[in-house]
Amino acid sequence: MKLPVVEYEAPTTVAEAVGLLAEHGDEASVLAGGQSLIPLLALRLARPEVLIDINGIDELAGVSAANGHVAIGAMTREYVAEESGTVADTLPLLAAALPLIGHEAIRSRGTIGGSLAHADPAAELPAVARALDAEFVVRGPSGTRVIPAAQWFEGYLTTSRRPDELLAEVRFPAARPDTGVSFEEVARRHGDFAIVGLAASLVLSGGVISDARLAFAGVSDVPVRAAAAEDLLAGERPSAELFDEAARRATTDLDPPADLHGSSDYRKTVAAAVVRRGLRAAADNARERQ
Amino acid sequence: MTAIAAERYTGASIKRSEDPRILTGTGRYVDDIKLPGMLHAAFVRSPMAHARVLSVDVSAARALPGVVAVLTGAELEAMTVPGPDALMALMGWTGPTPEFTLLATDKVRLVGDPVAVVIAESRYIAEDGCELVEVEYDDLPPVVDAAFALDPGSPPLFANLGDNIARTHSRHEFGDVAGTFADSDRVVDCHIDVHRHQNVPMEGRACVASYDAGSGVMTMHAATQSVHVTRIAVAMRLGMEQDKVRVVAGDIGGSFGLKIGASREELAVAAASRHIGRPVKWVEDRGENLTASGQAREESFDVRAAVSHDGDLLGLDVKMVVDTGAYPGMGAMVPDIMEAMLPGPYKLAALGFESTGAITNKATYVAYRGPWASETFVRERVLDLIAKDLGLDPVEIRLRNVAPRTDPPAVMVTGRPLAGVTSKESLERVAELVDFPAFRRRQAEARAQGRYLGIGVATFIEAAPGPRAPEGPSGPMGMESMRLQLTEDGIVALFTGQMPHGQSHQTTLAQIAADEFGVPFEQVRVVVGDSDVVPFGLTGGSRSATMTGGVALHGARQLKAKVLDFAAHLMEASAQDLLITDGNVWVRGDPASAIAVTEVAQRAASGHFGADVDATLEVEATFDGGEGGWSGGTHCAIVDVDAETGIVKVERYVAVEDCGALINPAVVEGQIRGGVAQGIGAVLLERSAYGEDGTFQSATFMDYLMPTACDVPRIEIEHLETVPLDADVNFRGVGEGGMIVAPPTIVNAVEDALSPFGVRIHEQHLPPARILELIAEADPGQRLGPTALVD
Amino acid sequence: MADITLRVNGATRTGSPEARKTLADFLRDDLSLTGTHVGCEHGVCGACTVIVDGRAVRSCLMLAVQAAGSEVTTVEGLAPDGGHGGHGGHEGLGPLQQAMWDSHSFQCGFCTPGFVMQATAFLGDHPDASEQQIREALSGNICRCTGYQSIIDGVLLAAQRNRQEATGNA
To answer: What pairs with residue B783 in β-bridges?
Structure first.
């Protein structure tokens, strides 16, 4: 399973990288952590002409908090985000999701930006980004665009990044106080992609839920916000009955893909269980954090 | 128990001699070998399951810089000798024998079927070359399930057979089948399926073929379970004299039955090396290993059980269909072993067994650790299904049916005596170790909270090597040979045809020889892995503990006698007054007389002695297994089934086992745990999946899921005191048992967990989605499928 | 092809790998360090695990050129004192390797270097890890032979001995 012949560029600045992308367009693949791209190359499923390795662009890494937002550079390694005090304090949902990504060795190299640009709908970070309405900052030849998460994920492994654009940074809103989070996931084995996962965040204030955010991994070709369930939860007090109903609303209209791990119906059933458990866990987390 | 001269090492968990190199990365696996001028092979493989090959155009591939040669199936036919599969021939197969070419020529018969081989300066370039080979295929209807294969209307995969029958239908009866069924209180009917899964050693198939034109010798650096069987296979196919082929093997990264003889790819690589005149390396990648190396266990069973109201299993009538895949392999032979083993340690009075083998457009059915294991799965599943129907508990029904140990021993209805079998003791011990009543209470409490815990047991025996057969040992598998030598340096060297690939023979055989001969463990060396040097042998079939342990014991004894005869001359004493302990020869009662074994060896090598003194300190020993014996035991699992998601966790696993005298307890336990892990994998995770059109869907580790450290619990192992049958050799094999009995143990536990839903399980693969389906399908009022009640 | 320089097991090494060559293949073929094994080439089995700049990584998921300027440790580089650097060999068993030897951790040995490197990295960061934490940390390494218990026991033993030695030296 050897990689095919490919040209290789290793720019050291964003400008250089953007220049290369402008030159090669969709004949180029951006190589960040490589934990998703290199297997695709080894299987010869991905056949770019050029690899643009952005690991040498130091300005792309880093976590910084300002004005109620946390900006994470695209080349920030997953393990760095996992160890980051800023992430732990201000992005508890991201902190909850990170340890579920693969295994430690994957997180040694994998990056926040790489995972979000790859956009595997069964991965944890796309669901987190969708739940938190993260913003995707891309740099291109004509300047910078900021793309909200709802528009970032277009289809299976497809984002709205243009071929000549580089994802430079992802911005997350810092969690409000009284926030409770959970990342509930059903996977075949520890560290596997989710069969179904749920990124859940809610504010529990005076025993009442607000700002509920639920995003599924693994139920579609993109991460999916469970808007109907979120609407139901607003203003209500946590209860088993409420969470049951939220699970029903969240899954009624789902039409998950069937694959080796299960039928569409199976995923729907699991999605409902994941919503119930995820909401329970998020509510508990909110109480613990208070 | 076993009478060994000085039991200092045998029975102890001596640290392995293999480990220093294993732990420091200085082992030598095939892919570590670099020979001058060595090239690399990659195979062009069919993307179709079943198709005619219309044309193969290798011109672009040949022109790629770095590609040295491209050989098509037709070109390889011209440079090799057609013939049957060597392993099948060795095992005396007389059934349907498909004719096929080494690589595909006129047609391809599975996704991954090799069509051409590209030989290049690097594997990278070889794979680039493969992409440039253009093959024109003409689709043929795929034959993807056994039912269609057995239909005369299915397109025959092999022209010379005219149909897709790998094994002609046969039926045998043991005992009075009709009478037993007629007289029984009820007859229970069910259909049981075992799914396709596979060996998956961490190292795939690999070889470096190096043909030396000057001497005409082909040296194969191989990953194999027998250097001699590989030698025979290579010599046959290449039309070479046997002694012109030398097979050497170093460290091997697991096999579990896969790496026996030589695969079509390895033979092609050998032919390529001879043709090009340079060494050629082939290391299959994981995709090839999963897709094309071979798979196992795809079998289906129609089972009728004659049962008494009290739970006696009186008779079984089983119809088996084995899906043998596309090319000939062990699948066609497996029903014979299954038939012989089906009664297990039970008092079964009658057995009817019929079988057919089907050829399909899927990977060849190869031997996989305990190839006959489904006999235990079927029997132990049926016992549980009967127990549930009658309200008996699983230990109770087994105790009721297990044959008591008598003298002379009870005989299986299929003919083998159950000498020394401790199944009853294993069941009783499991019941002691696992507090069933306490578990039932915990289970009830958990159910009240919507949690589903279950407990399952299963009992098995395996012929490791099996009791002494009245007609004596037979064929190349019957007798074990070993050459033992006291070298000039005073080392006791054991030359064996065993080819360890994780079995720790370099340690265990040395333990036995050290004890028997009287030298420290470090003064014994086990020599394996060179067909020019070692006698015939094969590691497999759970035989080596008895056969090789036995020949090491007896051989060391014979060598010691020879050495003492010689030492008697040096020491001017009588041989019967001499002892060897701790590496020294000395006269009994006179410690001051001691001289080192090393010195004796040096004197033998360098001195001149008269014709009446035999100074050749070497023996060729053979061993026929002595009284042999059974291994076996009872396993018990407690599982936690999440009824909302179908995820199953194995909470506790207990193995009570009897493998005779233990040579090295840590090695024995490692074998059991590894086998159990594969059983857990088979039930919960692993499936070699094909689509309806024959496309292979499990070609990466993202799809073929292997059990990890979070999937396999601590396995509690208890060794039973064994019944010695032989005066000296009571070691019995343990390599395959874990994998044989773990699947029914786990499935029985899952069914127990789901019994509130009325679930009955008739299959081995229970991924989460299937668990939820079983719950949804179950009707609490329904029991064991269609049940014919016979009065 | 690019010329790269990196430090491997404490020594400066150079090479000119094609861009597409993985670090695993570079270590094995160009540097003849065959202790690192290739088990799947798509980043699942962990047999290829090495330590790069202090972190365990899957060397089949890195290009050799990406390791330019890095510190790489392979199984051959685990020194008798358990640190990185030096050369392997039968005398050169670090404390983890010794504990694994004592625990009969392995059988065929093919997965072993990956486990040794992953466990080395993990224990370095989590010297007091529980069994469950060790299992999770090693769940990305596949072994087909052992059922994992003996490997976990080896890691637990190494951790226990490290603690005992630390208190002994305090």
So the answer is: none
